[in-house]
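Team,

Forwarding the record for the chain on the shared tracking sheet. I've put the sequence and predicted structure together so nobody has to dig through attachments.
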Amino acid sequence: MSTPNLSSPAPASGHGQDCPQDSASNKSEFWRGMKTSLPMTLGFVPFALVLGAQAVQKGFTVLQVPLMTGVNFAGGSEFTAISLWTSPPHLLLIVAMTFLVNSRHIIMGAAFMPFMRHLSKKQALPLLFLMCDEAWAIGITDCQKRKTMRLSVPFYLGVALCLYSTWVLFTGIGAAVGPLIGDVEQYGFDMAFTAVFLVLLKGMWRGITLCWPWFVSLIVAGILYHLLPGAWYVAGGTLAGIVAALFWGKR
C-alpha cells in the first residue's frame, strides 16, 4: 500500500481558511495530529489489552493477534469475531457478522469524502484504510473548526497512525500478558470502549436539533439487540438513522 503524498494543492475558493500545510510544515501538522489523538490513544490501550487477552483464550497465538488487528483495523468487528470463534470456526458466520458490524464504515466513508475531494484515489484509499471511528471524528471535527472542506492530510496521518500503531501493539501485548494476569475485564478495562465513544459524541455535539437521527438509530438498535441474535442491530440501527436523517434533512 503506497503512502499518500502529504502535500496538497492550494484550496479552492469558497472552502474557508487555507489548509494548515500551506502555512506550516507537514511535520508540525503531523505532530499536531499526534497530540490531538493522545486522549483517544490512551483510551485504546485498555480495550486493546482486553481483545488480545480474549483472542488468546480462544486459541489465537501471540503473533496472530496483531496480524488480525493490523489487517482489519476495526475493533468492534474484531470483538465480534472473537466472541463467535469456535474450533473449527464458522467462517461464513464470522464474515457476515464482521460485515454487519463494519457496515457503518460505508456511511462514514461517504461522509468523509467531501473533505477529500482534493486528493486523488491513490492518495485517498490509504487514508480510508486507516479510518476508524476516532480518526474519522477527529478529522471531520478539525475541518469544521478550521471552517474548511479540505482535510489536512499530515494532521490526519498523525492521528490515524498513532491510533493504528497503538491498537496493533497493545492487542499484541494483551495476547502476551493476558494468560499471566487472568481475566483483564475484572479491572474494568472493558469500560474504556464506552468512555471513548462518549468523548467522541461530546466532541461532535452540535445541539439537540441535529441529534434526532442518533436517537432513532439508538432506539432501533436497542430493540433489535433484544429481539434478534447476532449483530443485526448494527445494520438496523444504521439504516434507521439514515432514514431519520433524510426525513429531518428535508424538514
